[in-house]
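Deliverable D5.2: sample structural annotation.
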Amino acid sequence: MNTERERHLRKACKSEVTSLALDDLLFCSITPFSLLDWEDYLSTIFWFPKCNMRCAYCYNKDVVFGKAKITTGEALTFLKKRAGKLDAVVLSGGECTLCKYLPCFAREIKALGYKIKMDSNATNPKMIREMVEDGLVDFISLDYKATAEKHQKITGQVSQKSFFLVLKHLMQVSFDFEIRTTVHRDLLDEEDLNQMIETLYGKGYSGTFYIQNYTHKLETIGDLPEQKETIDIRKIRRDLLKVGFRNF
């Protein structure tokens, strides 16, 4: 495609490595609107395929193992038609920061007047830093997966180093973000969650730590059964951080 719009997209990007065309396939699906994913904002969700983690409780198998089917042009046309009806775009997945075109596409979203929220496992500190420094994201939900001891078993990833690098940077620049953990009682217990709270507190985090109860919907990557019991929220420490509970 050799159109003025495509030339604009390429110019908006910082390098040829991240140049973007209207016919590039980026997304596996779009959720037209949501009132749940970003409080106070009516949002649409763009689902990026692929993920570098294999969280046992994840039921987005079609996304994690899926392929992109929706082009940049189709996504932008969708947003233009809903201008004034939607407030924000949520970039999710999978793991959206695996997409090298993410900053360029975010610039296009911003040009249309939308706010942007990003869901991330924080394994790409460089990409997140670029998004924040260039004003391409307004809010980030960071997934804090597990204690150091259980991180590899739950996610398939060995190190948590990148998560804490991202956490440190976001705190240093006073960026608006949250930390959340999805808990399946067979994987994490109250002692684990309290240890995670202590770790966050020790790192200087003073925001809210959201604990999200696992909801059994579809077949998970780890073939997890439905929980026999949920965690006892009365046993969760609340003297160090404010703790929020979702889906309990």
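Annotation notes: The chain has eight helices and ten strands. Strands lie at 25-27, 29-34, 43-48, 70-71, 88-93, 115-120, 139-143, 177-183, 208-213, 242-246.
The annotation will be released with the project's public dataset once the embargo ends.
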